[in-house]
């Protein structure tokens, strides 16, 4: 019997995406691994589409000609600015750029089209690679009329995916914690998966959307995974070798208790000399093996993971000992701020999980070493489909902060539901924590939020912590389980490169690259329907699940599907406090947990008052009667009914629209999405009926429109 593995979907890099490039005479000037990647990509495209790739002077040798020799002058030049004599059009483009005023940095590039030649110039090889993928996005438009000089540079330096992948299959969480896309690309059954072609293809997809760092194992570090730092380091090096040609640095989640678990020391106290030495030595060995290693990711004192609290030390002490070990090698520690009491007594109304990260970390501002990046979940609780922005993001001017998003759809339909997260992420990144018109969350992640203000003592200079997402990819043939969830992975990279991009324009890019004319019979219809299905899908998901920002009405454990009281009497700190009169969490300063006081003005005032609190967050901040009238003019209870009926109707419409694509796109992909839409509809109906029935029974208030509530 032969078992055939299904072909892996090319994602946003089908061969046709390179058609315009592959048909040209291209010249690539420069040397180095990533320049070679550019050349190889172009050569593969040229072999398919009839073009030609020539190596420029620097690759041929310092004395070589400017590469224009041979059959016809190049129509496309990709060159490192310092790669020796450049052909005329490229030299002219370079002359028009003032590097002193406008540096390209490690990853930036210039793009222009002059006299029928398209030119990409970069100072560093990674810039050339990103320039190449920019041309892929442009397609034929890269070879149209002349283009004025454009300068492209990532807004965020660190654009990272965290894989919650386990090496050994975890008895409860499986191979990938909160993974909805099959197994891990990296690990299987206790060891490396060794499908290096797949790893390379993954790196290529990530580079094409702008990601430059990957943490290869779960932040919950169990016994087997801990050893990736020491005797299993070779497995990490193998992954680094495959990701390096695409400009991706590998990071490792490590256990804070590693000196005890792996080093046999009696303690992991960060202030203990032997512990510091152990980290320094272990880290030195990592860099001997992986010279461009990115650094460590640490979840400490969180949900059972070990941490500095055990030794009476602060999280700054804890993070700094690892940072000190990494500093000589240029590595960083991503230290997670997701620290809270998960063994809370639900009867205790004084403890509020939303406050925890701020309470723990804000007082430590200015005490972290320069190469510590404090990694903060975007909301104060835990990746719910709607939360306010975490107040920690505005509270630490003296610390490098990274904002953490969740691409894996733990709380947004687990890749069985269509839920395009681009609009949500964009809203978060554009949010202005100090009020409209001021610096944004993206500015904090970029390290530019405090520019122009006098530096505080001990503050770090330049370079924010960037953006991190928990990856949604796995060994599934479509990479992401739900084929349309690929759009989330793509959008994450693009928004990390430039948080100002319009998420619907990003969606256009993904559609145009993925559903190329040769794979669709009617590209315009395909694009329209994909927009109709995806554009509003996050808000649709929000409508049929937990209402008005209250969150966590999910089934405990696996977190799929509704269970309104599932977490209500548990130790996890995620409550909605519904009773016969009303619902919501009072987090005000006046009468509640005082969480609103963690925000700077104007938000501390906006959220404090029921009059000004945005409707979509009302129940996050306030406990209100069911007949409380929202700013939209309807009562809370009527809003719950209306939004839940509307959400399900929207899923019905999505499914109808999707049916119109049958026979217009790849049959396997169409069938996979159809099947998932059936499940989405079933699940959305269950959400609607449970939530509506629950609140009808609690409140006794009937639906104003007399619809059926079971
Ligand atoms: O949302 C929760 C998840 C856990 C996860 C944790 C975290 C990796 O349910 O599975 O653990 O967040 O972010 O650390």
From TrEMBL:
<dbReference type="InterPro" id="IPR011100">
    <property type="entry name" value="Glyco_hydro_67_cat"/>
</dbReference>
<dbReference type="Pfam" id="PF07488">
    <property type="entry name" value="Glyco_hydro_67M"/>
</dbReference>
<comment type="similarity">
    <text>Belongs to the glycosyl hydrolase 67 family.</text>
</comment>
<dbReference type="InterPro" id="IPR011395">
    <property type="entry name" value="Glyco_hydro_67_aGlcAse"/>
</dbReference>
<keyword id="KW-0624">Polysaccharide degradation</keyword>
<keyword id="KW-0119">Carbohydrate metabolism</keyword>
<dbReference type="InterPro" id="IPR029018">
    <property type="entry name" value="Hex-like_dom2"/>
</dbReference>
<keyword id="KW-0378">Hydrolase</keyword>
<keyword id="KW-0326">Glycosidase</keyword>
<dbReference type="InterPro" id="IPR017853">
    <property type="entry name" value="GH"/>
</dbReference>
<dbReference type="Pfam" id="PF07477">
    <property type="entry name" value="Glyco_hydro_67C"/>
</dbReference>
<keyword id="KW-0858">Xylan degradation</keyword>
<dbReference type="InterPro" id="IPR037054">
    <property type="entry name" value="A-glucoronidase_C_sf"/>
</dbReference>
<feature type="domain" description="Glycosyl hydrolase family 67 catalytic">
    <location>
        <begin position="151"/>
        <end position="479"/>
    </location>
</feature>
<dbReference type="InterPro" id="IPR011099">
    <property type="entry name" value="Glyco_hydro_67_C"/>
</dbReference>
<feature type="domain" description="Glycosyl hydrolase family 67 C-terminal">
    <location>
        <begin position="480"/>
        <end position="707"/>
    </location>
</feature>
<protein>
    <submittedName>
        <fullName>Alpha-glucuronidase</fullName>
    </submittedName>
</protein>
């Amino acid at each position: 019997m032969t078992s055939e593995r299904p072909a892996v979907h090319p994602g946003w890099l089908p061969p046709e995406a390179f058609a315009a490039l592959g048909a040209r005479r291209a010249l690539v000037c420069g040397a180095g691994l990533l320049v070679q990647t550019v050349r190889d990509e172009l050569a593969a495209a040229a072999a398919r589409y009839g073009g030609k790739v020539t190596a420029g002077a620097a690759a041929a040798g310092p004395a070589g000609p400017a590469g224009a020799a041979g059959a016809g002058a190049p129509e496309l030049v990709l060159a490192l600015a310092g790669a020796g004599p450049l052909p005329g059009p490229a030299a002219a483009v370079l002359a028009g750029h003032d590097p002193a005023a406008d540096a390209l940095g490690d990853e930036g590039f210039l793009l222009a089209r002059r006299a029928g030649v398209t030119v990409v110039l970069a100072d560093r090889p990674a810039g050339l690679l990103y320039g190449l993928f920019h041309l892929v996005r442009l397609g034929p438009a890269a070879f149209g009329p002349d283009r004025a000089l454009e300068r492209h540079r990532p807004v965020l330096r660190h654009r990272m995916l965290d894989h919650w992948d386990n090496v050994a299959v975890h008895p409860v969480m499986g191979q990938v914690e909160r993974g909805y896309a099959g197994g891990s690309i990296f690990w299987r059954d206790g060891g490396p998966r060794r499908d290096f072609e797949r790893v390379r293809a993954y790196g290529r997809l990530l580079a094409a959307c702008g990601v430059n760092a990957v943490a290869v194992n779960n932040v919950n570090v169990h016994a087997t995974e801990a050893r990736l730092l020491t005797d299993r380091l070779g497995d990490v090096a193998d992954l680094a070798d495959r990701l390096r040609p695409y400009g991706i640095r590998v990071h490792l989640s490590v256990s804070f208790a590693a000196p005890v678990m792996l080093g046999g020391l009696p303690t992991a106290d960060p202030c203990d000399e032997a512990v510091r030495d152990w980290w320094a030595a272990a880290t030195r060995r990592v860099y001997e093996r992986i010279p461009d290693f990115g650094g460590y990711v640490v979840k400490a004192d969180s949900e059972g993971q070990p941490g500095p609290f055990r030794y009476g030390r602060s999280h700054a002490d804890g993070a700094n000992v690892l940072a000190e070990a990494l500093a000589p090698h240029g590595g960083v520690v991503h230290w997670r701020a997701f620290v809270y009491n998960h063994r809370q007594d639900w009867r205790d109304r004084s403890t509020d999980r939303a406050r925890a990260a701020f309470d723990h970390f804000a007082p430590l501002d200015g005490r972290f070493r320069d190469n510590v990046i404090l990694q903060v979940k975007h909301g104060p609780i835990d990746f719910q489909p709607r939360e306010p922005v975490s107040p920690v993001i505005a509270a630490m001017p003296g610390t490098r902060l990274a904002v953490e998003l969740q691409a894996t759809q733990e709380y947004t339909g687990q890749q069985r539901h269509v839920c395009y997260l681009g609009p949500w992420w964009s809203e978060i990144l554009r949010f202005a924590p100090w009020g409209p018109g001021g610096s944004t969350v993206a500015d904090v992640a970029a390290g530019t939020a405090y520019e122009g203000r006098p530096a505080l003592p001990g503050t770090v200079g330049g370079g924010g912590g960037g953006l991190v997402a928990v990856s949604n990819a796995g060994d599934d043939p479509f990479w992401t389980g739900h084929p349309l969830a690929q759009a989330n992975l793509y959008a994450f990279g693009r928004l990390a490169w430039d948080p100002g991009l319009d998420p619907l324009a990003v969606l256009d890019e993904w559609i145009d690259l993925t559903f190329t004319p040769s794979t669709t019979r009617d590209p315009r219809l395909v694009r329209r329907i994909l927009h109709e299905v995806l554009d509003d899908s996050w808000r649709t998901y929000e409508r049929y699940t937990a209402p008005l920002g209250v969150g966590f009405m999910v089934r405990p454990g696996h977190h799929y599907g509704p269970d309104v009281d599932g977490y209500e009497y548990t130790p996890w700190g995620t409550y909605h406090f519904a009773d016969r009169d009303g619902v919501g969490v009072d987090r005000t300063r006046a009468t509640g947990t005082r969480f609103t006081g963690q925000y700077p003005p104007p938000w501390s005032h906006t959220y404090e008052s029921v009059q000004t609190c945005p409707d979509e967050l009302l129940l996050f901040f306030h406990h209100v009667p069911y007949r409380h009238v929202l700013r939209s003019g309807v009562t809370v209870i009527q809003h719950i009914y209306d939004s839940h009926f509307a959400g399900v109707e929207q899923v019905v419409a999505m499914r109808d629209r999707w049916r119109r694509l049958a026979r217009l796109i790849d049959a396997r992909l169409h069938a996979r999405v159809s099947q998932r839409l059936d499940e989405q509809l079933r699940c959305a109906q269950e959400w609607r009926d449970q939530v509506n029935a629950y609140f009808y029974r609690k409140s006794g208030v009937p639906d104003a429109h007399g619809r059926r509530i079971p």
